[in-house]
Amino acid sequence: MTPAKPERLSVLLTTEGTYPYHGGGVSTWCHALTNQLSEVDFTLFAVTMHPYLGTKYPLAPNIRNVLTVPLWGTEDPAEYGRHHSFIDYLQRRWSTTREDIERDYLPSYDRFLSEVVDRTAPPRSLALVLLRMHLFLRRFDYHRVQTHRLVWDAFVRIARGGWHARFPDERTPSLAELGEAWRLLYRLMLPLGVDVPRTDLAHSAAAAFCGLPFIMAKLRFGIPYLLTEHGVYLREQYLNLGRAVKSTFVRWFMCELINAIADVNYAMADQVSPVCRYNTRWERWRGVDEQRIRVIYNGVDPEKFAPAPRPPNARPTVASVGLIFPLKGQKDLIEAAPLVRNQVPDVEFRLYGAPSDREYYDECRARVAALGLDGHVTFAGTTHEPWSVMQQADVVAFASVSEAFPYAVVEAMLTKAAIVATDVGGVHEALGRTGLLVKPRDPVALAEAIATMLKSPEERQRYGEQAHERALAWFTQQRFVDAYRTSYRSLVHSAEDEAEVEVAVAPEAAIA
Predict the structure, then answer these.
(1) Which domains does the chain have, with CATH numbers?
(2) Is 100:140 a contact under the CB 8 Å cutoff?
(3) Which of 9, 261, 326, 364 is the most buried (most CB within 10 A)?
(4) DSSP string of 40-81, one letter each residue
């Protein structure tokens, strides 16, 4: 008798600023997950910065639909909303009245903002407040509601009050600062107004605003929620806000908002799967109990990233692969370059990657010129064959300030590369003792480690072989895919079992 095929699962997978419109580690993860789990039907829910994007990846045939929610680039977010018809859109807009907002939306909005600026209730209580807001916004027009004078007045009152309660000696935020914070809130909360299709499982790639519709689906329909953490969203946003936002008031409000949204994601997730053990410290700090945490390491295809003969380079070569972005630390690598040149005069640094942050990229190029490194540091642009870069380099260097569990490190390990990396995030978990680790933001230590590797061919070979063995044992794509396949089925079956138990006990409970 032929065994029955397992029933196909449907999964709603969300991303924020990544797949399928941008490259990077999270997109690599999404692409591998959707392609390798061919027995799963995926719907992508992609939160993007603006609507004018083309896909960077060929989508797997089991991706049935892509729902895109652009946060910016539209005057009215309803332009990209999901409506049954144009008449449906007009009816939503015309039917949104002051009385509806004042009676049915404002109390929840007021409670939500109050909890953001002064956390007193547990995250699950805040989730229920968000649910009431969601149920209202799915019936009425988001733009008309959020820009209503009543909503603005509530925001000003609560945001100012929270600021002065926390910082009584600070000046009152200006109208411009209040407007900037309100505009960010308006845009970032857009996913709350979206009604997502019902699936067997909701899977978010970040503890972020993109998870809000999934939390609503869990509360409304009991859909199990799996949360994967790549970088720690809170930490990365703290670092980004410090660079991108000048106003102290706006930074404070955004930090409180991001804290609240992340905590709700953590509280509502049935399983939290960070990509490395390092991330669990943050998750436990934010209240996730150990029973719900299951680390699932990223995995790489060992056939694509395979060792190859390493003929001697004309010049000692250090390669770095990654987006040109402040958190990737290329400027520290540039600062280290002249120190390495003092010991290895003909060294060449090749920095591969697109400039994700144009201002930072310009700063890096200016620093190369100021240090007289022309001819020693090359910006090589995007590579479509990173395995070839890693196979040919004498040393592969990673100078990141913040990381999760970077694909590039494991990719380099599989090619038997000699690796120097900063000890951030899950890099130590990946590399172990099969490479040289240094503290972040320390160009002197980085230079010393690189120079040591360049001057020791035998050590480079030994490190490379050990790194290859470690990656094959722990970080292959097959291990990664099998772990998610198991998690999907376990979560869905647990939810079904709970539903059956509820049905069985409901009549007796009612009699009691």
Answers:
(1) 9-292 (3.40.50), 317-474 (3.40.50.2000)
(2) yes
(3) 261
(4) EEEEEEEEES-S----SSPPPTTEEEEEEEESSS-SSGGGGS
For every residue of 465-483, DSSP letters joined together read HHHHHHHHHH-BHHHHHHH
If we measure between CA atoms, which residue out of 501, 508, 503, 488 comes closest to residue 8? 488
| Amino acid present at 71 | L
DSSP strands (E only) in 217-372? 225-229, 271-274, 317-321, 348-352
Spatial distance between the Cα atoms of 377 and 360, rounded to a whole number of angstroms: 16
* Residue 44 in tokens: 């992508």
* Residue 379 · residue 399 · CB < 8 Å: no
Residue type for position 228: T
Burial class (CB in 10 A: 0-12, 13-18, 19+), 238: middle
Q: How far apart are the first and last CA of the chain?
A: 47
Question: Please, which residues have CB within 8 angstroms of residue 509's CB and are 6 or more apart in sequence?
Answer: none
Residue 248 CB coordination number (10 Å)? 14
- In a 13 Å sphere around the CA of 463, the CA atoms on its Cβ side amount to 25
For residue 133, what are the contacts with CB-CB under 8 A and spacing of at least 6?
Answer: 105, 108, 109, 112, 192
Residues paired with 289 in a beta bridge: none
CA torsion sign for 464, 470, 472, 477 is negative
With contact defined as beta carbons under 8 Å apart, do 455 and 491 qualify? no
Q: Which residues of 161-195 are buried (b: 16+ CB within 10 A; e: fewer)?
A: ebbeeeeeeeeebeeebbebbbebbbbbbbbbbbb
Main-chain dihedrals φ then ψ at residue 493, nearest 5 degrees: -70, -35
Q: Are the beta carbons of 216 and 126 closer than 8 angstroms?
A: no
pLDDT per residue rounded down to tens, the chain (512 residues): 444 455 799 999 999 999 999 988 899 999 999 999 999 999 999 999 998 999 999 999 999 999 999 999 876 666 555 555 555 655 666 678 899 999 999 999 999 999 999 988 899 999 999 999 999 998 888 989 999 999 999 999 999 999 999 999 999 999 999 999 999 999 999 999 998 899 999 999 999 999 999 999 999 999 999 999 998 887 788 777 877 788 999 999 999 999 999 999 999 999 999 999 999 998 999 999 999 999 999 999 999 999 999 989 999 999 999 999 998 999 999 999 999 999 999 999 999 999 989 999 999 999 999 999 999 999 999 999 999 999 999 999 999 998 889 999 999 999 999 999 999 999 999 999 999 999 999 999 999 999 999 999 999 999 999 999 999 999 999 999 999 999 999 999 987 655 443 333 333 333 22
- Pairwise CA distance, residues 269 & 289, whole Å: 11
Q: Which two tokens stand for residue 194?
A: 């979206």
Q: What H or E segment, with its residue span, contains residue 201?
A: strand 201-204
